[in-house]
Amino acid sequence: MRAEQISGNRKKLKNLGMNAAGKACRSMIFILGGSVLGLLALLLAFCLPLEPIRLHVWQSLYLLEEEFGNSEMIPGYPATLTGNFTDCLMLENAVYRNEEHSMLEQVLYMYRGESGQGDGWATGDSLVDYLEGTEQPREVEYPRYWHGYLVVLKPLLAVTTLGSIRIGASALQLGLAGFICLECGAQKRRMLGAAFVLSLPFLYYVTLYTSLSLSICYYIMCAAVLAQLKLHERLEGRGGYWEFFLLVGMVTAYFDFLTYPLVTLGFPLCVFLYLSGEKPRIAFVRAFGLCLAWAVGYGGLWAMKWVLTDLLTGGSVIRDGWNTLFVRTGAAEGQSVLSGFFAVLKQNLSVYGNWGFYLPGVGIGLWLLALYVGRRRAIGRGGLACMAPFILPALLPFVWIFFTQNHSEQHWIYTCKIFAVSAFALIGALGKGIEKISGEADRECRN
Questions:
Q1: What is the phi/psi pair of residue 139, to 5°?
Q2: 155, containing H or E segment
Q3: Model-level pTM?
Q4: Mean pLDDT of all residues belonging to the chain
Q5: DSSP 444
Q6: Nearest-angstrom CA–CA distance, 180 and 198
Q7: Quick one: which H or E segment has residue 210?
Q8: Helix (H) or strand (E) holding 26
């Protein structure tokens, strides 16, 4: 009997090892293939005629210049910033060209002109000077990022201005939220749709359309959630969730500017837990594995940008990227790791310290409490057990801030948006417990 048990355990370990090796192999293929496709897409984007793009950026200057001195959509509320600084950098990357560099070098190093004093934090002035033909004192490079947003931004600027892009963005962002809610309703997951809508204010959603850079993660997150709602059964049936989260991480690394990337993991993870019919303990373990898949895709594709740049140009981007990584994941300035964590956490949460969040928060809390109290006997242990795995995504923002204190301290006015994940997780957890016993879900958790 003991021999059979040992043999069975060895077989399980062997299967786990083979499964892990298969995932590692597939992940490597995905990342290598994604790197090649990403580079080719950028090269194609840089083949577009530059004059129409320059013209439309020039016509957008009036809008940008108004925001140079005041980038807050609602003055006095830092988290409502329009992201003008980074947007100007993105726009100059879209229009800049120096014939001394080949197209491949421009794509990999992302050269741009730089005006002003110091180390170049006057991106608006730099953009204006370049478009007006004013001689710029220096040229700088920004090779650590993929700058994949240019695959979309350059074609858009070839046909329209920034103002039109913002109008289209407002419609697209509202449409994505609407389609997610409609799909939740169609699948009788109304509490999931409610949780999604109620978490949007924590993204300062109403201001996202004003920023090119600060809306990227929202688009990726919504696209991932919609894909899950449509394809959940196929992903489960074919064991494709590892590759799905891997791909989401890769797409985030390709397009995003390290703004608040955690939402592209946290929101899909909550949806996975909500739709999952696994036992709570198994669901939790699988969710942890999907966090790993996202991290492999995110970190792997980002690292491949550094590797490709050094291989194709003989540069030293790997060293620069590695040094920057250590800085960004270091403790807050002048603080220990623990004291720095609490200080940065308080700083990030401060953007929600106003009555614009207090009053709706109280209303939402009372509504959820009423739903829970009315069904607490029916929910019982089974419903509570189904809620338990949501503690993982709810805690992710705290873990992220702990390990990225330097970045979260310097850019708290938008890294704060990651707490939308905690809101979605907590409301979604209670929603799943309620739907479990209300007959709205088409499938119950197995205990």
A1: -115, 135
A2: helix 150-157
A3: 0.91
A4: 87
A5: P
A6: 13
A7: none
A8: helix 2-45
